[in-house]
Amino acid sequence: MNREASLSKRVLTSKGLRYCPVVTSKNGRIKPDTVIVDGQEEQHPEGAYYISWYVGRKLMRLSVGKDAADASARRLSKEADLRGSCDSNDDSNDARPTLNKIRIVDAIDEYLSETKMTRTSATHSAYELALRNFTDSCSKTLLHEITRADLLGYIKHLRDQKLSDRTCHNRFEHLMTFLKANGIEKLAKKRDWPKFVQQEPESYENDDLEKFFAACDEEEKVFSNSI
Question: pTM of whole model > 0.70?
Fold first, then answer.
């Protein structure tokens, strides 16, 4: 069993988002916001720190926030856990025990910050709204406290707002993507997901279209042709 953990920072480089090794000073402390990119030291205030370790051949990663000193302490704590474990199965598939100090609001801020860097503004806004809805419905403070009951409460909260089934499904999906990015999976059962009916688009015959365009004025014809 591998008993070492490494620390990197996920930053935006000329080649896209990458996990880059941190830089340590002579006294062993991490230089804040300093990483190695293609062999060179660079300053990157954006992004978050990640602990990495192996379970067998499987690489595990866990976000540990934006503070360099705290991230370093979390790495050392993780290594102590790995070295102190007598049963290699203790860490096999679950990263949740290391989440016990991460606040939900901090994880959301970090996730939205990365989303803003890598996705469209519309996507960022959609995730922001979905996660804000979740914090409105959930009274928990820490990530590891989230349970299936909180997910069901979130769905009820969305439905209480009279949102469509499709909107409820999309926002729930955004929440599940956020949780998975933070190492939290398999809380929701398949039957828990909000269901919706995919509507078939209405089609028109050529005769109907000819009548429609014949009734349009010049401005309406320009708009119709642009759709």
Answer: no
